[in-house]
Structure formats: C-alpha cells, structure tokens
Design brief:
The chain has helices at about 1-15, 40-50, 50-55, 70-75, 85-95, 140-150, 165-170, 180-185, 215-220, 220-240, 240-250, 260-265, 280-290, and strands at about 25-30, 60-65, 80-85, 100-105, 110-115, 135, 160, 170-175, 190-195, 210. The protein is of the alpha/beta class. The protein is globular, with a radius of gyration of 19 Å. One of its GO terms (biological process) is thiamine biosynthetic process.
Length: about 325
Amino acid sequence: MKKLVFILASLLLFSCQEEKPAETGQAKIKLKLNWFPEAEHGGYFHGVQSGIYKQAGLDVEIVSGGPGNPVETEVAIGRFEFGIANADKILAVRENGLKVVGLLAPYQTSPRCLIAHQNEPLETFADIAKANRLIVNDTKPFYKYLVHKHPEIKKNQTVAYSQALFLGDFQSIMQGYINSEPLIIRDKGFDIKTLSLADLGYNPYASVLICREELINTNPELVKAMVQATQKAWIAYLKNPSSANKVIIEKNPELGTTLQRSAELLPGMMSADPFGQMTPERWNTLAKQLHECGVLKAIPTDLHKVYNTSFLSDQ
C-alpha cells in the first residue's frame, strides 16, 4: 500500500514537469535503457548519432540502465519520457498499476537464451534440471514460465546473474541474449551451447519502446515524432551500424570486437512490416502464458491499451 501511495504521489509530481522545448526549438526528452548499452539498443543510439532525432525536432538524451534499474516505474511516474522494456515486463507492471504502453518492438523474435558449457548435457529444456546451478534472475517472467513448463527445474539452485561465476562453474547454466553473451564468452576461449526460449514457445517482443499512458493523451505529437524517428533510426542502423557502435563501445568497452558481430545478427530477429509492428495475437498469447505460470493474476481486460501501434509509419 505504501508503495502504491509513493507511486501515485510521484505521478502527481512528475506530471507537472511535462517535457518542454529547448531553446533550439527541440523537445528535450530522456530515454532510459533497460541495460548497459549494447547492440539491442543500436537503433536508439543511431537516432542520436545520425541526427535523425534532431531532424524530427527531438533532443534525446539516452540514459544507461543496469541491474536493479526499475525502468518501467521511472517511465510510469514521468522521470523519463520514454524507456526500453520487454513485453512480458510491460504486462507484469501494468497489473501492479504502472500504466506504461508499448509503442514499437524492434525484436520480433526474443533473443533470450540459456547458455551452458559444451560439456554440459543441455540438448533440451528438460536437461536444465541436470545443471549444478542456474545463474538467472528468478524473478523474471521468463524463468517463471520455464519452471511452469518444466517443474523439475524448481530443485535447481538459482544465483544472481554473473558471467564470472558461469565461466568458473562448468556445470552451470546462465541466462543471456543470443546476440550478446555467447559471442563475448566464445571470444574468451570457452566452448558453449545455447537454447533459445523462443523455441519453447515463449517469444515476447524485446527492447520495446515504452511511454506512460498520460504522455499519449497529453502530447500525442511528441510520441508520434519519437516513434517514427525511432523506426527510421533502427532501419538505418541495421543497414550500417558502424557510427552508432562507436558510441556504444565508448559507453560499454567490455563489448570489444563482439559488438559488430552482435549487430550483424539483429536483422534476422527484427524483420517486420512495418518495422516495430506488434499484433494483438502475439500480445494475447503472451498474456495467456503469463497467466498460466502465475506472473499475472488475470488476463488483462484492457489488453488493447497495453500497446499502441497507431504512431508507426508504414515505411
């Protein structure tokens, strides 16, 4: 109850601080990432680096995320105009009263995967139970769904995400993104194998651009400008990621030489017409899955409000 009161109070506070045009005539907005800068955010960085956002009248500041960053909460209370979140998280937080809305989905195929050392018998999802431990965030919706489909996994010890721990424990399994951690780990000389959560039928949209419902109601032109500029930026990034990648590397040097290869894997997971499209069928399937595994108490009756594709350009 106290948490809800805090959120409501914050909403009142930040709703009075609507984004205002800068002296240059550009609307100053902040975009909060859900993790440290990586290829999964490439289109957003390209929008800044190439000037696409400025051409749309937007002065966009990208703020890095990381562990424990409540992006959805910060967007819902107006601390950030826009943010990045995955579709399953959007549904989960909306049930708790945070009215954020998905606007554009770069990833049409979820990059979420499980990673094991080559010697580990990870051929099917049932094999996960044989691991020494799972290096995963066990509060994430994907883990809840995984346990729902394979209850035997409940017996596995779970520990917080740590690449160092995974590299030192050859009987462990770790969560990751198929175009990120596997590349980094192989570059360090380790032989690994992966399983894609999408192959289990769990395929939420990822790296979704979100805003709060109130912003759509009070400033739809700003939302439209951001969405359509982001579409343009992502399409350009997928064709030539080099300039944006230079900025991403500066902000996250650990990516090293893997960033370019990571970006090269994106087009196959981001194909949609128009770019960023989302369908009611996909959202409905995801809501049912989250309800089945207990993440949602009920399937939302306002599912049509969870996402909004009306701002997308037909480019």
